[in-house]
């Protein structure tokens, strides 16, 4: 029971860390087995913990994900010293009502025809696991940790909270 509570807290922390990070690096697997990463505009997680991204129906990543649904998302907030990695599976969703539900005018940059563009598809990420590094945002704490490490020769252990979490039930 304590482990479940700890996992729940870890998952909540992970989602809290990514909610304000606007861009994620999405990594997919190309047909030759190489990894391919690209920036994707981040939308907040839905009530089930799934993450949603907009794409073009004919984009290479749609073919890659249709062939191999394994995906990794990397999130970085260097100013807050927060980093998150999420692995899971992707699903291509063609649902006009969901497009309209998730639509924001900032997306018009990539989709000038708006939410009714027939070339819009959604990528739904079903997270399986993740890891986060939540570092101190205060420079004084960072300087203290680095100075202590230099003086003692020991790596700075208190500079970040690092945890792996399971994100599926």
Automatic annotation (TrEMBL):
Organism domain of life: Bacteria
Boundaries of every General stress protein FMN-binding split barrel domain copy: 11-155
Family annotation (Pfam families): Pyrid_ox_like
The protein's name in its UniProt record: Pyridoxamine 5'-phosphate oxidase family protein
InterPro entries: Split_barrel_FMN-bd (IPR012349), Stress-Dev_Protein (IPR052917), YdaG_split_barrel_FMN-bd (IPR038725)
Coiled coil spans: none
